[in-house]
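PROTEIN DESIGN WORKSHEET
SECTION A - STRUCTURE
LENGTH: 410
TOKENS:
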């Protein structure tokens, strides 16, 4: 007797999934953050050097990393990746940044601003300014300038009062950029810095001042860039290879394992959708090694289904009925599947713990793929197969991998 409720339950799972996946897959993919090897950008490794009056410590390295990160944020560069390597090195990865020289200048410019008296005495520094410097144009001349504001207006008022009629020079990184004459005391604590070639340079100086000076100087150790075209080509080739693999796996599973193979492939589509949904939702930056790990996970997800199907075929050989063979095959395959997934997760955790850069990216993607495999290839696939068998709609064991005589097909 056909149990239509079980078959409708099977169809409901499939229909609901595709009704959710088809309208949303494009937006999920568009929301995934791509690393510089897929999107283009550059990678640079700096060594933090001793300052003239202070040796580098780990606290100093962390402070320098934070200062660099603040500069990147002030420049509006999205998705930076900064990591401390060893005792005194900082790796900076910026995706989508293609003018490497300008980006490097932003990172290493010391941005030490000083106000000096006519005799060269230091009167104030950039540390006395609020982090609200901004580029603007002079309303009378249209010339670019940088507007700054002192944290303590009294400090600037005292300076401008003392040096009325004299020049108070402004220095940036040891170079004098302005030497104005103080005509009258400035009591508001506001000032402007002139002398920029254009508004772009004024914005750069404002960004430097807002981010503050670097605690320690940096020396470039290595750098490399990836053009947008190379990143796009790598992404296209990887997805193309994954698509070919998916088609070949689909043909093999359906021809060799029949209905269980078809259900396994439906679960595999669910696995792929769940995988990229998690990556998009968690805001994980997807790199080429990470994408390779996700595609490798496709093979692992299929392997989980094959283990369960082969155990089911063993039960057919032992003369079990269709329902008994499916239930016992799934039950006896579970310890092997769990052991394999646990060891894979352990390997991923160790890679993440001891690895750096691309290895960490691979490890994160690997762990996510294992968890997604367990949800789709184990839980959902098992449920769908049992619903189909219990519906009694297709009773011939041959459709489930058995031979016409009742044993497992070769």
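SECTION B - SEQUENCE
RESIDUE ASSIGNMENT:
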């Amino acid at each position: 007797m056909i149990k239509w409720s079980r078959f409708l339950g099977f169809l409901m799972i499939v229909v609901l999934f595709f009704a959710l996946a088809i309208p949303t897959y494009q937006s999920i993919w568009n929301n995934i953050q791509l690393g510089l090897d897929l999107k283009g950008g550059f990678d640079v490794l700096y060594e933090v050097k001793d300052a003239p009056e202070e040796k580098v410590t780990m606290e100093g390295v962390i402070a320098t990393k934070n200062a660099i990160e603040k500069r990147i944020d002030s420049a509006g560069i999205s998705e930076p990746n900064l990591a401390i390597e060893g005792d005194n090195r900082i790796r900076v990865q910026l995706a989508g940044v293609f003018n490497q020289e300008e980006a490097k200048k932003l990172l290493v410019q010391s941005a030490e601003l000083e106000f000096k008296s006519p005799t060269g005495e230091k009167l104030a520094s950039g540390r006395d300014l609020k982090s609200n410097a901004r580029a603007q144009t002079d309303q009378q001349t249209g010339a670019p300038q940088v507007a700054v504001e002192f944290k303590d207006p009294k400090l600037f008022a005292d300076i401008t009062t003392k040096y009325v009629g004299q020049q108070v020079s402004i220095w940036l990184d040891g170079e004098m950029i302005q030497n104005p004459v103080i005509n009258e005391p400035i009591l508001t604590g506001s000032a402007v810095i002139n002398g920029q070639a254009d508004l772009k340079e004024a914005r750069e100086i404002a960004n430097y001042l807002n981010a503050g000076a670097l605690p320690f100087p940096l020396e470039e150790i290595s750098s490399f860039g990836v053009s947008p075209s190379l990143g796009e080509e790598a992404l296209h080739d990887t997805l193309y290879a994954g698509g070919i693999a998916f088609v070949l796996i689909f043909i093999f599973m359906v021809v060799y394992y029949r209905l269980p193979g078809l259900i396994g492939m439906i679960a595999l589509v669910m696995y792929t959708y769940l995988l990229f949904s998690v990556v998009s939702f968690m805001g994980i930056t997807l790199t080429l090694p990470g994408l390779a790990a996700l595609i490798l996970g496709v093979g692992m997800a299929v392997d989980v289904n094959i283990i369960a199907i082969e155990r089911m075929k063993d039960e057919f050989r032992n003369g079990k009925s269709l329902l008994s063979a499916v239930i016992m095959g799934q039950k006896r395959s579970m310890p092997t599947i769990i052991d394999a997934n646990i060891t894979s997760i352990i390997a991923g955790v160790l890679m993440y713990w001891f690895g750096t850069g691309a290895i960490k990216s691979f490890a994160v993607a690997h762990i996510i793929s294992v968890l997604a495999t367990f949800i789709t290839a184990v839980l959902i696939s098992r449920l769908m197969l049992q619903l189909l068998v219990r519906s009694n709609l297709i009773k011939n064991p041959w459709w489930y991998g058995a031979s016409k005589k009742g044993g497992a097909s070769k």
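SECTION C - NOTES
The mean pLDDT is 83.
Residues 228-282 form the longest helix (55 residues).
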